[in-house]
Specification:
Number of strands: 10
Order of helices and strands: HEHEEHHEEHHEHEEHEEHH
Mean pLDDT: 96
Low-confidence stretches: none
Distance between the termini: 50 Å
Largest sheet: 7 strands, mixed
Structural class: alpha+beta
Bound molecules: zinc ion
């Protein structure tokens, strides 16, 4: 059975104790952990300078009947989901797809959360990064983290959940999208919405020399510096403008980038 100390040693083995990090985690492969999610969070907070995570909330989103062309969306397609959409609240649960660790962080005392209605970030000792977010630049905290020599830490996770690749796609000039969300009593336009991440794992072979990896219990932790990630993503998109897109023929966003 893993406990907080095992995880702390594993994080320390990455050799990144003075670095600020953005974390993505799937906890199931660890099996039962003594003191659960809290133990992992404690280990993270005592191992890194700052900890930031996406705290995205997709249930605030609405799809209009009409809108700008080539926006990677099928307008009028989500009428039932629109009816279920909820206004963003600062204490709204993080989307289950993002994972329980981010939700546990955002409800922790002294944690900060940004107020973007879809793409909020949460963090501890990460305010200098979080405050850079605007509606026009929703992923700015990732750029600010890179400026501070930040790293991505993926716990039992591959690059298909690596949100920072979206920031690098934007740096590479890749198309961003407009989405809409309920904020208070109005619907707000949210520009700078990123593409689809399901093809991102193709980056793994290019990052091999730069990845730090530690095995822990039945799981693993891997990390890469944001600066290195950004350079690699920009390089491969420059070589192949269709790199990192998914292969699904019905993927609205990847198709919009191809067209
Ligand atoms: Zn796709």
């Amino acid at each position: 059975m893993l406990d907080s100390t095992d995880l702390k040693f594993a994080f320390e083995d990455l050799g990144l104790t003075e670095k600020p990090v953005i974390v993505h985690a799937s906890l199931r492969p660890f099996g039962y952990i003594k003191s659960g999610v809290d133990a992992i969070l404690r280990a993270l907070l005592s191992s890194f300078k700052s900890v930031m995570m996406p705290a995205f909330t997709y249930k605030t989103m609405v799809t209009p009947g009409v809108g700008p062309a080539n926006n990677g969306i099928t307008y009028g397609s989500e009428k039932d989901l629109n009816k279920m959409a909820q206004p963003f609240r600062l204490n709204m649960r993080v989307d289950p797809m993002i994972g329980i660790l981010a939700e546990t962080l955002q409800i922790r005392p002294f944690a900060t959360r940004t107020d973007h209605p879809i793409l909020s970030f949460t963090g501890l000792r990460a305010d200098e990064f979080l405050i850079t977010q605007t509606m026009a630049e929703p992923l700015a905290p990732i750029g600010a983290l890179a400026e501070a020599d930040g790293w991505v830490v993926l716990i039992n996770a591959d690059h298909s959940v690596n949100t920072s690749i979206h920031y690098a796609e934007k740096l590479a000039g890749r198309k961003q999208f407009i989405r809409w969300a309920i904020n208070g009593d109005r619907i707000v336009e949210c520009p700078g919405f990123p593409g689809d991440s399901s093809g991102f794992n193709a980056i793994a072979e290019y990052l091999k020399p730069d990845i730090r990896r530690v095995e822990v219990g039945a799981g693993f932790i891997q990390a890469v510096s944001l600066k290195c990630l950004f350079e690699t993503v920009q390089e491969i998109i420059k070589k192949d403008p269709l790199a990192l897109l998914c292969q699904r023929s019905d993927c609205d966003r990847c198709n919009a980038i191809r067209s």
